[in-house]
TrEMBL record:
Its EC number is 2.1.1.163. The lineage of its organism: Bacteria, Bacillati, Actinomycetota, Actinomycetes, Micrococcales. It catalyses: a 2-demethylmenaquinol + S-adenosyl-L-methionine = a menaquinol + S-adenosyl-L-homocysteine + H(+). Keywords: Menaquinone biosynthesis, Methyltransferase, S-adenosyl-L-methionine, Transferase. It comes from Microbacterium betulae. The gene is menG. Belongs to the class I-like SAM-binding methyltransferase superfamily. MenG/UbiE family. This is Demethylmenaquinone methyltransferase. The keyword Methyltransferase applies. S-adenosyl-L-methionine binds at T69, D87, D112, A113, S129. Methyltransferase required for the conversion of demethylmenaquinol (DMKH2) to menaquinol (MKH2). Pathway: Quinol/quinone metabolism; menaquinone biosynthesis; menaquinol from 1,4-dihydroxy-2-naphthoate: step 2/2. InterPro entries: SAM-dependent_MTases_sf, UbiE/COQ5_MeTrFase. GO terms for biological process: menaquinone biosynthetic process; methylation.
């Protein structure tokens, strides 16, 4: 007889959507606090860099996918843009509404990244921070982001990545394997969720591979830059205008 897992919402690298969503539901209340502790405050710097890369303007319509508790969405909305914070975790969205529900031009929508409930060409810009890695079909999600973006619209993806310098990469792996789990157990609400976080970062492709996926999906002007020595990478692209009809 097979034993039941200790935590049915403990996601694994199979990335079953229901289990991943359940895991994030459990950590929603302390998610931001835990992120600050685990990144030594760098998450705020990374969020600011993402906002600058999106370059939101008043009147634009922007999709913030995998928005979590809506911290990045609120930052974008304060520019005057109309921002949709989308996530597949109802617990995260509930926490986002509680914290940022009063922010003007900000709405919350539950959405599956691989089948977005939006029209073609609906957004001037789309962005996704630390969520693409949790999608079981990331290439399909990249294609969906392309579909809902208008021609000439912008993509910004911020995701954990591979530090290019071997010495720093080794230090970073040591931190993820030995230190991060202990920090998560001290300040987090579900330490097993952060075990999955470490596993998913370790198995995620490097910067050049992700840039290749974005290019293959049909985005143009694909580029990336490393933040904090490559712990995360900020990927940018543009949806091309359709070519002349033959």
């Amino acid at each position: 007889m097979t034993a039941e897992p200790k935590n049915p919402n403990r996601a694994d690298l199979g990335k079953d959507p229901a289990r991943v969503a359940g895991m994030f539901d459990e950590v929603a209340a302390r998610y931001d606090v835990t992120n600050v502790a685990m990144t030594f405050g760098n998450d705020a710097l990374w969020r600011a860099a993402t906002t600058r890369a999106v370059a939101p303007r008043p009147g634009e319509r922007i999709l913030d996918l995998a928005a979590g508790t809506g911290s990045s969405s609120a930052s974008l909305a304060r520019s005057g843009a109309d921002v949709v914070a989308a996530d597949f975790s109802p617990g995260m969205l509930a926490e986002g509404r509680r914290r940022h529900g009063s922010v003007r031009n900000l709405s919350f929508v539950q959405a599956d990244a691989t089948a977005l409930p939006f029209a073609d060409g609906e957004f001037d810009a789309v962005t996704m921070s630390y969520g693409l890695r949790n999608v079981n079909e990331p290439k399909r999600a990249i294609a969906e982001l392309l579909r809902v973006t208008r021609p000439g619209g912008r993509l910004v993806v911020n995701e954990f990545s591979t530090p290019p310098h071997p010495a720093f990469r080794g230090l970073y792996r040591f931190y993820n394997d030995r230190v991060l789990p202990r920090v998560a157990r001290l300040v987090g609400s579900n330490a097993e969720a952060y075990d999955y976080l470490n596993e998913s970062i370790r198995e995620w492709p490097d910067q050049a591979t992700l840039a290749g996926w974005i290019r293959e999906a049909g985005w143009s002007d694909v580029a990336y830059r490393n933040l904090t020595f490559g712990i995360v990478a900020l990927h940018r692209a543009v949806k091309p205008y359709p070519g002349p009809q033959s």
